Amino acid sequence: MPEVANALPRGYALHEYRIESVLGAGGFGLTYLATDSNLSLKVALKEYLPSDFAARNEDSTVQPKPGEAAESFQWGLQRFMSEAKTLASFRHPNIVRVMRFFEANRTGYMVMEFVEGKPLPDWIGPRRPLPQQTLQALVAPLLDGLEVIHKAGYLHRDIKPANIFMREDGSPVLLDFGSARELKGGNQELTAVVSPGYAPLEQYHTHGRQGAWSDLYAFGGVMYWMLTGNKPVEAAARVRQDIMPPAVKAAEGRGYAPEFLSTVDWALKPNDEERPQSVAEFKRRLAGMQPASDRTVPAASLEKTVIAGAASAGGMTGLTGVVLDREQVKRVESDMARHIGPIAAVVVRNAAKKALSIPALAEAVAGEIADEKARAAFIKKFTSGETATQPPSGATQKVPDATISQKFTAEMLHRAETALAQHIGAIAKVVVKRAAAKARDESELYLLISDEIKDPGERKSFIRKAISISGKS
């Protein structure tokens, strides 16, 4: 493993834990990847070793520096062990779990769950822009976890994208409690902790009024970054003249509800008294907010997409009035969960509110799958007829031209052929005719023919533009 100053060597044993590599190093200590030899389990092992106050001896013990540094080291060690005890009591799936803590080498150690996956910045890259419902589904469990921390009387104090990990099952987890502190009162002295762009002004000095609102500022900063792709302007530069574009402007026109964006701006108020004062207050404002696109569906379009017999008890009715077969929706959800984890349930059900068909639902959620081949296979599975309602036994799937003409005018078919031909050429005419035999209306026609467009980005753009056009006809 790469050499890190003061780090324990690979293979070094601490009780049943064997050091494998250094995961990270900071001013207060080091974090190692280790193996629990009893359980054959990978863990993250955090060691208290503040570089300003102590150093490593040749026998691997930690030695405080002389003078006042020794007193600071002992005070910090007591805090480290006390906080480890508290963090070990937290039980929430979206907070990294502390499994054990102990003293050795004249210092303290904390054994934590090793989270396999990707840091949020790496995970979110190919998925931008995140739909609002996906973003809400991602932040909700993190806020629940943060609320657990606050109710226990602690602040995290270093919430930022790098401290949020996405597990391989798609669930988010809040990491790195190295800066966490117990908060017994609103005005006690707390050490300054600053991650520029995410730290509120009160964390720039030791006597700032730190509280739940401080963590919420950082959380709002993470949301701002997820929405816009830009890190917020450093808090200290926003006090006299706020030069940072608010989320309502920076993310305007991307399908987010204005109220949702203004809630993010609320958490990012430079003045701590103007921010939400608790996680519960912030969650209440976020709850129930729908993406802007959910509230702009023309009434005429809704009427066109209502299917006869829509009151079927076995279906799910969304904003469009279309009833989707509940079992098929569950199949989409189950398949999606293999790619993005538990968050699939929220993503699929929110998308189902707007989908005109199961293929449309699959197309709507497929953007969450990062791997291009997996995404294409997912879309094909749900648009190729594998999950679609099959015709009754003995029924022919060929529909006479006369039946097609009853549903679509020549102008509609020509418009569809022209649009698709830009992507696949002359064969578009045959594709449109076949799709017209299956489609119930013009919107579904475009959804069916879009499957022939191989590029995911072009396909998504085609669907949006085509459905917009068909909705006006």
- The SS-based structural class is alpha+beta
What is the CA–CA distance across the termini?
Answer: 64 Å
Radius of gyration: 27 Å
Low-pLDDT runs of 5+ residues are 295-314, 317-321, 386-400
Number of domains: 4
What portion of residues belong to β-strands?
A: 5-15%
What is the name of the CATH topology of the largest domain? Answer: Transferase(Phosphotransferase), domain 1
Count every helix, treating DSSP H or I runs of 4 or more residues as helices: 17
CATH architecture of the largest domain: Orthogonal Bundle
> Which percent range fits the helix content?
40-55%
Could you describe the largest sheet, including whether it forms a barrel?
6 strands, antiparallel
- CATH superfamily heading of the largest domain: Transferase(Phosphotransferase) domain 1
Mean pLDDT: 81
Describe the structure.
Helices cover 41% and strands 14% of the residues. The chain has 473 residues and is of the alpha+beta class. The protein has four domains: 13-113, 2-Layer Sandwich (Phosphorylase Kinase, domain 1), CATH 3.30.200.20; 117-286, Orthogonal Bundle (Transferase(Phosphotransferase), domain 1); 297-391, no CATH class; 399-473. α15 (428-436) crosses α16 (442-449). The longest helix has 21 residues, at 68-88. The protein is elongated and about 90 Å long.
